[in-house]
Specification:
Blueprint: H1 2-17, E1 18-24, E2 34-39, H2 46-54, E3 60-64, H3 73-79, E4 83-85, H4 98-110, E5 114-117, H5 135-146, E6 152-161, E7 169-175, E8 179-180, H6 194-210, H7 218-235, H8 243-263, H9 265-285, H10 291-297, H11 299-314, H12 317-342, H13 349-375, H14 378-417, H15 419-445
Parallel strand pairs: 1-7, 2-5, 2-6, 3-4, 3-5
Antiparallel strand pairs: 6-7, 6-8
Helix pairs in contact: 1-2, 4-5, 5-6, 7-8, 7-15, 8-9, 8-15, 9-15, 10-14, 11-14, 12-13, 12-14, 13-14, 14-15
């Protein structure tokens, strides 16, 4: 019961922090047999929370042992039935106790349960997967050795964040095709051979690459991100685009960038320069690529948008103002704590923000309720606890709607007063998109030999 309540609270926290959360490929997750989820690890504790909240079955997580000794977080990971992993890099860790970890994980799988593992071993902000450790493969092969009749699947789970440190960004959890685990040769100690563990780890790595974004060059990811904004804005039809489609676009651009980086670097440099000029022109005009669609829609569409969406939001300005006033101190303190304790590590910023928000915002409501009880009585407590969270949510939604409306209105002004300038921006955006499509198609048409997988590390 407590776990169910905690999962509901964590799901709500994710929904508030991320403006949009998408889950794709849930049909790939087996519901009946034993299952090992393997996932990339770009965002500290937020990554396992996504699996715990959005996997279509109950999951126990393998988590680093120091988490169990942390205040608050230690209680949470125990409540979620996590299993500790003892890593060499953790101070005072007794790695010999990983035998106990493997035993507990295998026992759970033999009962038909599921576990989740981050085979990279640590959270990071790299632009690609780190070499995988073989712990997940050894656990899976070990349990099939103990019970060859057991059906066991490994499910790759890719996490993609549009801006993982930013409040009200978006996130995608994508489940890939499951990998069937077959019994293999084992040594005299009953453990799988090193070769078998490495072979299964290589299969896991290939499966994870299919559901994640990997860029060999950090500059490539930056260019791809800028190009994708132009590409998606040009292709937009007014509906919010799918994160799964956005991920596929970026994966295609990354592959195309890598291909042309070797064969036509001057062409990439020219594209990068054109993107920079285009972005500079938009900045000087105070526009975003998406704003151009609002101007192109015409005055009638903008008027309809104002009547149906903007005016109702503007009517809530008083409640939004109250929400800003009440929650601003907690909001600022949350940001300050994230800056101080992240130690310049982007992969833990959102974890700190979410944990701090789950403590500071309820504390704000409790203080307001106490003040209401002191001044107007117990009925004021009910009003405070109902109105304060509602006003806070209205403030968030109001800010998002207002930002979009201001950008669209600015684009409409340019469309009406400087139509030639506006049309030239649209034409350049279209030409940039055509060039990006050509780069991707040329890379896809060229047959290439797949690069061998990097050796996996042997520790858990």
């Amino acid at each position: 019961m407590f776990r169910r309540v905690l999962v509901s609270v964590l799901r709500l926290a994710l929904r508030v922090f991320f403006r949009r959360v998408e889950v794709e490929g849930a049909e790939n997750v087996p519901r009946a047999c034993a299952c090992v989820f393997v996932l990339n690890h770009p965002n500290a504790l937020v990554d396992p929370v996504f699996i715990l909240c959005h996997a279509p079955r109950r999951v126990s997580f393998l988590a680093k042992e120091p988490l169990f000794r942390m205040p608050v977080i230690g209680s949470l990971v125990r409540a979620m039935e996590a299993i500790p992993v003892y890593r060499k890099q953790d101070e005072g860790a007794d790695t010999a106790r990983n035998r106990e970890t493997f035993t507990r994980a295998r026992a759970l799988l033999k009962r038909g349960g599921s576990i989740a593992v981050c085979p990279e071993g640590a959270s990071h902000s790299d632009t690609k997967l780190r070499p995988l450790k073989t712990g997940a493969a050894r656990i899976a092969l070990g349990v099939t050795a103990q019970d060859p009749t057991l059906e066991l699947k490994i499910v790759p789970a890719g996490l993609y964040y549009t801006a993982k440190t930013a409040f009200r960004s978006a996130a995608l959890l994508r489940f890939g095709e499951p990998i069937a685990v077959e019994p293999c040769e084992h040594g005299a100690d009953g453990e799988p051979t090193h070769e078998a563990a490495r072979e299964l780890s290589a299969r896991i790595e290939r499966a994870l690459r299919d559901v994640t974004l990997n860029a060999e060059h950090e500059h490539a990811l930056s260019t791809v991100s800028r190009a994708e904004r132009v590409f998606s804005a040009e292709a937009a039809t007014g509906e919010e685009r799918s994160l799964a489609r956005e991920l596929e676009l970026r994966r295609r651009f990354v592959a195309g960038y890598a291909f042309h980086f070797e064969r036509a670097p001057a062409r990439l440099a020219a594209l990068d320069e054109r993107l920079s000029r285009y972005e500079q022109t938009l900045r000087l005009a105070g526009l975003d690529p998406e704003d151009l669609s609002a101007g192109r829609a015409g005055a009638g569409a903008v008027v309809r948008h104002v009547v149906t969406r903007v005016l109702p939001v503007l009517c809530l300005v008083p409640l939004a103002a109250v929400g800003f006033f009440l929650h601003y101190p907690a909001y600022r303190l949350t940001g300050a704590l994230a800056t101080r304790f992240s130690r310049a590590s982007d992969d833990v910023v959102s974890t700190i923000k979410i944990v701090a928000s789950m403590l500071l915002f309820p504390l704000t409501w409790i203080v307001l309720a106490c003040a209401a009880a002191w001044t107007v009585g117990w009925w004021g407590v009910v009003v405070a606890l109902a109105v304060a969270p509602l006003c806070g949510w209205i403030a968030v939604r109001f800010a998002e709607r207002l930002d979009g409306f201001v950008g669209g209105a600015r684009a409409l002004r340019f469309y009406l007063t400087r139509r030639w300038f506006f049309k030239e921006l649209l034409a350049e955006r279209r030409r940039l998109r055509e060039e990006m499509v050509a780069l991707g198609e040329e890379a896809a048409a060229e047959p290439r030999v797949a690069a061998p997988a990097e050796p996996s590390r042997s520790s858990a």
